[in-house]
Amino acid sequence: MDSFTKAIKRYLEKRFGNSIEDASERQIYQALMVITRDKLAEKRYHYINKLKESEQKRVYYMSMEFLVGKTLRNNLYNLGIESEVKNFLSENGFVLDKIYDIEPDPGLGNGGLGRLASCYMDALTSQEYPITGFSILYEFGIFKQVISNGWQQEFPDNWLDLGKYGLIYRSDEEVEIKFYGETKEQWTSDGLRIKYEDYTPIIAEPYDLMISGYETDAVNVLRLWKSKASGGFNMRLFEQGEYSKSVESKAIAESISKLLYPADDNNKGKELRIKQQYFFTSASLQQIVKMHYKAYNTLDNLAEKVVIHINDTHPSLCIPELMRILMDEYEYSWDKAWEITIKTFAYTNHTIMAEALEKWSVDLFRPILPRIYTIISEINNRFCKWCKDIGASVDLEEMSIIHNDMIRMANLCIVSSYSVNGVSKLHSDILKKDTFKSFNRIYPGKFTNVTNGIAHRRWLGQANPELTKYLNELLEVDFIKDLSSIENLLEYKSDESVINNLENIKKIKKVQLAEYIKKNTGLTVDTNSIFDVQIKRLHEYKRQLLNALHIIYLYKEIKYNALKPYPRTFIFSAKASSGYVMAKNIIKLICSISEIIEMDPEVRKYIKVVFLEDYRVSLAEKIIPAADVSEQISQAGKEASGTGNMKLMLNGALTLGTMDGANVEIYNAVGKDNIFIFGLSSEEVSDLSERGYRSEEFYQNSSVIKETIDFMRTLDNGDSNFNYMADYLVSRDPYMCLADFESYLEQQKLIEKTYQDRIKWGQMSLVNIANSGIFSADRATSEYVKEIWNIKKVK
Ligand code: GL4
Known about the structure:
Elements: H1 2-16, H2 25-54, E1 58-62, E2 66-67, H3 72-79, H4 82-91, H5 96-102, E3 107-108, H6 112-126, E4 131-136, E5 144-148, E6 151-155, H7 160-163, E7 167-169, E8 175-179, E9 182-188, E10 191-197, E11 200-212, E12 219-229, H8 235-239, H9 243-246, H10 248-255, H11 271-296, H12 302-305, E13 306-311, H13 318-329, H14 334-344, E14 345-348, E15 359-361, H15 362-368, H16 370-389, H17 396-399, E16 402-403, E17 406-408, H18 409-416, E18 419-422, H19 425-435, H20 437-442, E19 447-449, H21 456-462, H22 465-475, H23 496-521, E20 530-535, H24 544-560, E21 568-573, H25 581-598, H26 601-604, E22 607-611, H27 617-623, E23 629-632, H28 644-650, E24 654-657, H29 663-670, E25 676-677, H30 682-691, H31 695-701, H32 703-714, H33 722-731, H34 737-756, H35 758-770, H36 777-789
Parallel strand pairs: 1-4, 1-13, 4-12, 13-14, 14-18, 18-19, 20-21, 20-23, 21-22, 23-24, 24-25
Antiparallel strand pairs: 2-3, 5-6, 7-11, 8-11, 9-10, 11-12, 15-17, 16-17
Helix pairs in contact: 1-2, 2-5, 6-36, 11-13, 13-14, 13-16, 15-16, 23-35, 24-25, 24-32, 24-34, 31-32, 32-33
Family: Belongs to the glycogen phosphorylase family.
EC number: 2.4.1.1
GO molecular function, one term: pyridoxal phosphate binding
């Protein structure tokens, strides 16, 4: 530790010519980032040497997204030096929390899928498993959201400006990626060889982010690739005065890693997206193969020493890329290359939403990646032939990789991986029984489940130090090391003083959040009110609209039926993909409700609506510990798992949810008396869909629905979109908000009643915290380790 503080002083002197007394916060920030990074790099050196010596199997985790969150606090916490650094800084007049605020959130992901990847990197590192993440160094991560007059606006997020200090540039490991051009078959004395001509080369530059683990010597790496033109700018054009042309190819090349696509759960066949996918998978595969060959002098044992995990289909071009490298660069035959390939890949599916299952049109794809296209096409031919040979009565319409001139990436992944998993029990069952049922028939045993998990060290240890400290003292077990031991809390279920202490901690977190709300929105919220929270991407299937409809109902009842409900603060935070019009309309609706209530002194005594802009990891860390109610109200069958549900439970919020995704497992863990469940089940949703859902019938047949929607229309003032949304609900309502409305209302009433019984609520909250152990990412990753990857800790 002494050396750490010395290093800070030395850095300030050398870099800025400043002693710590004269340093600015910004300089302290930079010093802490760089010194922490270098300390981790040093640890990494020892760790990687052990790993190399042991010649053990490693995992490479491919993901288009890693929603890393701020790194500095996480690293100091994991290194166990946070409080010393805090004291050292405070002796010198600095507040560590203010230094943390300077760091931007590396927003290299959209939502759950990206955050899951980061939780897994953290958990695996804490457990000393050898894993390397691969992704793209997006210059602009997920956009910054600003709400203006209720409408979402997007602004670029230039996170590298201050975020770059955490990265290490590895100029020695650049690779070249080839796009366009033509492939020619050539017969040589060694047989058929592929010659690739007239291609456009792009360089991938590697940047490493050190991933620290909790109280461990392990340090893993997230490698992020940045694109750059091969050969820089065109000097001849520049000399001729053609300045903009001279840098054109450079600009095109660099556009590849310019920006993260801000769409979650939908797939638009964009050319740049294909380029991004191939860019990072090719760069990563080339590096993996090169390293492996260097270590073993052969690739025959690749599958024994390497697992490549494909996080959703976005990195699926890894598969044909490995085939290409094996055949075109290392001269393997098709059969031998295929044998290695299908033993190397494992694939996780994260969604069954049809619009999110990636498909590429052959016309778009083939010119960009001609060689890769031929390989996919050959994989498909052989697969279809194999199906016929085994005589399986299989449905090739459903299973063929290329169908109607579209390449179906999920099918490619299933055919080419040895393991396919879903992310909750329900989701994995749907994959087997429905979405991929024919595949499940011909590949018995290939499909499995690993229910998601979360990095509790971040989501409890760091986000809620007050609760962590209290539980540590109370339980006398290191539940941060092993979350399963948190179940000891159950012993205190009848201990009123414990219930009171938990309630007091919740209150502290609510006060902190209320301050943030005041500062950022100007709204004053009552910290004695129920904090009812829905925070996640804005998607119709997640049904923020159902939540809004309930608030409109309460408004009507308070205003016209003298209802005096227990006070509630509805807190929303959500980004909408920039092209998603309906999602933006829902944000506008929520903001309009908030405004109307705020203007009405009669109503605002009871209910308030807060929309916090720019949802991101660091904001989630502020909201989650303060939540009383966790809204997990997706249409059943649509949310593959959810992970926010787990984070909220861990912090003592009670779930109000449908039987969807991991809610089902939360229900099983806490029991029916400690959760609020409503709505149609996923089978009921399917049945109703098949029969033909008509929301208008629900509107006509239920007076409460009718009155609420009719009232909603009266709120329209021309600038708001109440009428528009009312029409939408009555005429379309694709996710069946109206079908579930009454049962949702019933559970909301029960919540209100239960909350007022402070002991009962406290006990329910305690039971939730105590049963959250199984949702640790340590548990989830251990299942990957044992059931899928078969790797060992680095000792
Ligand atoms: C998602 C699912 O929508 C979400 O339910 C799940 O928790 C997450 C991680 O498995 O993956 N799939 C996509 S796409 N985005 C997600 O957040």
